[in-house]
Protein: Thioredoxin-like protein AAED1, chloroplastic
Amino acid sequence: MAAPVAASLLPYVSFPPPARSGATTRGLDLGSLPGRRRHHHLRLHRSLLPAGTAAASSPSASSSASDLGSSIGDALGGVEIYSSATGEPVLFRDLWDQNEGMAVVALLRHFGCPCCWELASVLRDTKERFDSAGVKLIAVGVGTPAKARILAERLPFPLEYLYADPERKAYDLLGLYFGLGRTFFNPASVKVFSRFDSLKEAVKNYTIEATPDDRTGVLQQGGMFVFKGKELLYARKDEGTGDHAPLDDVLNICCKVPVS
Structure:
């Protein structure tokens, strides 16, 4: 990309593609977007987080007690998402051994978000380390399986580890941030500019066509979670666009916990 690169990328990081009929000339009908989605958030209890990891590194990791509490694994296990490889529905509980298996569950924003292409590229390049530790990588994004395949083919990213959550069910359950403020105006989003070379490399084959047809999906933020069986070992919610979990924290959890 030609200089100034930051200026050329910012519209893609911030704004969705032009909307179809019924939208404003800015490409996004703000009146149609909920200011705050009304759903039951799962607020992760501080005691579920390992000392010295997410709770120490980000305010998004700490939280209050919730109604679901330690049953988060059971609750997430019943959530249906879609395989990008086959387009078929699958339950989270079928993706890894629910007794002793280790899994890193990375919830991206949407498949048309350049910052998520960057995160997906980092996860892809780290997959060998996950494999050697016996850890299953599960990457989930907002959009349809067809949109997921665009990212997988152009980035590229292995289809068998990529899943679609078009209705954002997992995002709702985990209480991940959503809204205009988090997406466009949160100070945490400026972190992406410290990873500019990585971002530029990841979007070489980028296309905005991967953006979900449901424009509300562009207001969804992601997060990172590590499970052993149904037990939650690590949780971090992205404060803003591009505010991804420190990968070293995730790898430390994966390496320190014995895998049966």
Remarks:
- The first strand starts at residue 80 and ends at 83.
- The two ends are 46 Å apart (CA to CA).
- The beta strands are 80-83, 89-91, 102-110, 135-142, 162-164, 223-228, 231-237.
- The mean pLDDT is 78.
